[in-house]
Amino acid sequence: MGYIGKRSAQPIILGALKRLEYRGYDSCGFAVLSNGKIEVFKERGSIDELEKALSGVNVGGTVGVGHTRWATHGEPSRRNAHPHTDCKGDIAVVHNGIIENFQHLRETLAAEGHVFRSDTDTEVVAHLVERYYNGNLEEAVRRALHEVKGSYALAILHKADEKIVAARSRSPLVLGVGDSEFFVASDVPALLEHTNRVVHLEDGDLVIITREGFRIENGGNVVPRKMETVLWSIEDAERGGYEHFMLKEIHETPRVIENTLATHLRDGVLGGVDLDLDVPQSSEILMVACGTSFHAALVGKYVIEELASVPVRVELASEFNYATTPLSRETLVVGITQSGETADTLSALKRAKAAGCATLAITNVLGSSVTRLADRIIYTRAGPEICVAATKTFTAQLITLYLLALHFSSIELAERQKMLKELRRLPTAVQRVLDAEDEIKEVSGRITSYENVFFIGRGISFPVALEGALKLKEISYIHAEGYAAGELKHGPFALLTEETPVVAVVAPDRTYDIMLNNIKEVKARKPPVIAVADEHDEEIEKYVDFVIRTSHVEPIFSAITNSVALQLLAYYAAKERGCEIDKPRNLAKSVTVE
Ligand code: F6R
User: Which among 26, 245, 438, 521 has the fewest CB atoms less than 10 Å away?
Assistant: First the structure.
C-alpha cells in the first residue's frame, strides 16, 4: 500500500492495511517520509500490535508505503517485516511476490559491500536501487528491475523525493486516483474507503506518482491505461469480485502453480529441481497427513513410485499415532499439512522423530508449528487460503510432490526435461479448465437434487476421486463417497440406483480400458454417470451421460486438471443448494486437536 497526498499518510496506510487483513499476514510495517527522513515502523503480529507499539504517536509525513507480510522467505519476525531499506536507510521498499534470483543478487551485492539485515528476497531490491541511485529514483528503479527475475508488486520511496515509484510484474497492483492524492495497493479493498477511481496496472508497468499526478511507463515508453470506476462494496472487493473465497482461490491456481515451480525449479541445478534435500538412502518413504492433504499424499505415492521407484506408504496421521506398525530408522517420514498446525500430523511426525526417522514437512505456512518440528521443510507457495475447504493449497501440494518425485528420480535426462516442460505447461492447462467453468456449472446441476453420489477412479485417479467426494460433501452436504472403481462390485453396488449419480474420473493411462469396463458395470445398474475425461478422449461419450472435459496433459498430471474440475463441480453444486461454502458447518480451517 502506498499513499501520497496532503493528508497524514500513517492513518491512511494503517487503515488500508486493515482492509487487507482478510488475506492473512504474520507481520506488518510502514515507512513515511517525514522532514526529509525515512521513518520505518514494523512489528511481528497484527496491525493492532503495531499501533500499540506506536502508542498513539503519528509520525507525520504525507508520503508513505506500508505492507502486511505473509512470510515466504525468512521466518515471520520484525526484522523480516517490510518495509526493507538500503544500507543508509534512504530507500524504503514494500513488495509482494517472489524475487526468484534473489540469492544470486544478494551474493553479488554483499560482495560489493551491501549489508543485509533480513532473510527476505525483498531486501535485494532496496540495495539494487541504492546501487543505481544517482538523484533520480525512477531511473534507479528501472535499472534495478532490469536485474530482477520473478514476480513483484513494488512500492518504493526515497528520502530525497516526494514521490512513490511502483512497479508490477505478475503480482496485482492497482493505482487509486483521488483529489490531489493517489494510492497504490495490491488489492482494491485497500483503496475503496478513499476513492473508487482506479487504474489496474499491467505486467511491466512502472508508475511514478507525485501529488501532481502519475505517469505510467512500460518498456521505457509512456503508456495510456484506462481509469475505471469500481462499483463493488468493500466486501465484494475482498473477494476480488468473486462471490466466494473458494471460487477466487480456485481461480488463483495457475498463479499458485507458477509460484511453486518458480521457487523450486532452478536453471543449472542437477535435474532442474532445487529442493535442498539429499536423495534418501531410505528404503521407504512414509507419508502422514489428514483430509485433503492425505489425498495429496496418495497422489504423491503414485507419482513417486512411478518416477523414482521408491516404495511409498501413506497413513492417516490420526491412525498412525495409535498404530503399532514398526518403524524402521531407514524410513523417510513426510508430513503434509497446508496449515502446519494439524495436531494429528504433528503428533505423527513426533512419533517418527522419536523412532529416529528423518522427517520432512510439506506446508504452506512459514513459521507454523510443523516447521519447528521436521528436519526439513518444503514450502508450497499457494498464499493464504481463506475458504475452509482446501483447493489451491491441494494443487500446490501436488506440484510439490511431483517435484519431490523428480528430485528422487533417476529417469533419463530427456524424459526429465519432458516432465519439466509439462509441469511448466500446467498453469495454461488449468486456466483452460477454469475457462470452461460454465460447462462444469451446468453438469453440477445434474447432481444437486440427489442425496448420494459416488466418485470412482483407478490408479492416480483414485485419490482424485476421493478428494472430489470430500470436496462435494463438505461444502454441499451431499453425501459423497470416493471409491476405487474396481471395488464397487464388492459391496457398494447394492446402493446403485437411478438416484445415485456416479462421477468417474478417467485418465488416458494404463487404467483406461478397465475403467471403461467398470463404468459399463455401473451403467447397467442405471445411475446417471458423469465422466471427468481428457478433451481428446473420443470414446468416453458412448459410455456415460455427461462429460466434463479437461485439458490434455500427460496422464500423470491429469490429477491436477481433473481435481480442479472437481473443485468447480463441488462449488457449483453447493452454490445451487444455497450452502454457505466458505465456512461449512462444523468445520475449522486449522484442526489443532487430535
Ligand atoms: C478439506 C480440508 C481438510 C484439511 C485437513 C488437513 O477441504 O481442508 O480436510 O485438508 O484438515 O489440514 P492441513 O493440510 O492443514 O493439515
Answer: 438
Of 380, 374, 402, which Cα lies nearest the Cα of 393? 380
**Spacing, Cα 496 to ligand 1 middle (Å):** 29
Report pLDDT for 375.
Answer: 92
Section 158-187 average pLDDT: 94
CA of 415 to the centre of ligand 1 (A): 33
Instruction: Out of 249, 336, 339, 364, give the residue to mutate to test ligand 1, the one with the largest number of ligand atoms within 8 Å of its CB.
Output: 339
Whether 472 contacts 568, CB under 8 Å? no
Helix (H), strand (E) at residue 156 = strand 150-158
Determine the atom of ligand 1 nearest the C-alpha atom of 471.
7
CB 350 within 8 A of CB 333: no
Span of 209-223, 228-242, 388-402, 481-495 with lowest mean pLDDT: 228-242
Kindly report whether the global pTM for this prediction surpasses the value 0.85. no
Q: How far apart are CA 515 and CA 509, in angstroms?
A: 10
User: What lines the ligand 1 site, CB under 6 Å?
Assistant: 290-293, 337-339, 342, 345, 389-390, 470, 474, 591
Instruction: pLDDT band for 279, please (50, 70, 90 cuts).
Output: low
Torsion sign over Cα 307, 312, 316, 318: negative
Smallest CA separation from ligand 1 atom 5, residue: 291
Nearest CA to ligand 1 atom 15: 339
Residue pair 105/148 in contact (Cβ under 8 Å)? The answer is yes
336 residue type, one letter: I
Asked if 19 and 224 count as a contact pair (C-beta separation under 8 A), the reply is: no
Please enumerate in sequence order all residues whose Cβ is within 8 A of that of 580, keeping only pairs 6 or more positions apart, or say none: none
Distance 475 CA to ligand 1 centre (A): 13
Ligand 1 center to 7 CA (angstroms): 45
CA distances (Å), 181 to each of 19, 58, 210, 237, 380, in order? 19, 19, 8, 21, 38
| Burial zone of 6 (CB within 10 Å; 0-12 exposed, 13-18 middle, 19+ buried) | exposed
Task: Give the per-residue pLDDT at 401.
Answer: 97
Q: How many C-beta atoms lie closer than 10 Å to residue 270's C-beta?
A: 8
Q: What are 63-114's pLDDT values in tens digits? A: 999 999 988 888 899 999 999 999 999 999 999 988 989 999 999 999 999 9
How far, in Å, from the CA of 184 to the mean position of ligand 1? Answer: 35
Number of other residues whose CB lies within 10 A of the CB of residue 267: 7
- pLDDT band, very low/low/confident/very high, at 269 (cuts 50, 70, 90): low
**What is the Å distance from ligand 1's center to 289 Cα?**
9
pLDDT tens digits for 556-577? 999 999 999 999 999 999 999 9
Give the span between the Cα atoms of 492 and 359, in whole angstroms: 38
Q: Ligand 1 test: best mutation among 379, 591, 592, 594, most atoms within 8 Å of CB? A: 591
Q: Which of 299, 342, 362, 594 to mutate to test the pocket of ligand 1 (most atoms within 8 A of CB)?
A: 342
What pLDDT does residue 182 have?
98
- For the stretch 327-356, pLDDT in tens is 888 899 999 999 999 999 999 999 999 999
Assigned C-alpha cell, 166: 511502483
